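In this supplementary section we document a worked example of the pipeline. Step one takes a protein sequence of length 144 as its only input; no multiple sequence alignment statistics are reported here. Step two produces a three-dimensional model, which step three serialises into structure tokens for compact storage. The input and output of this example are shown verbatim.
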Amino acid sequence: MVALTPSFPTAVAELPAWRLNALRGAYLLLVVGLGIQVWPDIILRHASWGLMEGVVQSMLGALALLALLGLRHPLRMAPLLLFEMAWKLIWLVVVAAPKWASGRMDEGTVATTFACLLVVIFPFVIPWRQVAATVILGPADRWR
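The serialised model returned by step three reads:
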């Protein structure tokens, strides 16, 4: 059986070093940002969390740990950056934009909005052709 593969490059070796390092910079931003903001609370304050705060902080802590893998395997971990862009875009559209449009932005929403807007750099560092070739258009794993 012949697999159809896209005609553009997919190997990490074909990416210039600056491109891989730009990706690593995005992961480093996640590691440092979440390391400063989330991990102190995970270590010191977790006993006082409510249900949803615990869910959010745990998810963000896991995101930071997985971003560490992105420093070693920047292209393989690209779906992590896609996830980061997706949840922030959804939050900005569903939560922040309606509050902004109605003039109901509170201090917490403004702070979270600015934190979410940092994601605008990710589309510029992601090598979209390689991500499309490996993650979106590449051969799927077998089901059986």
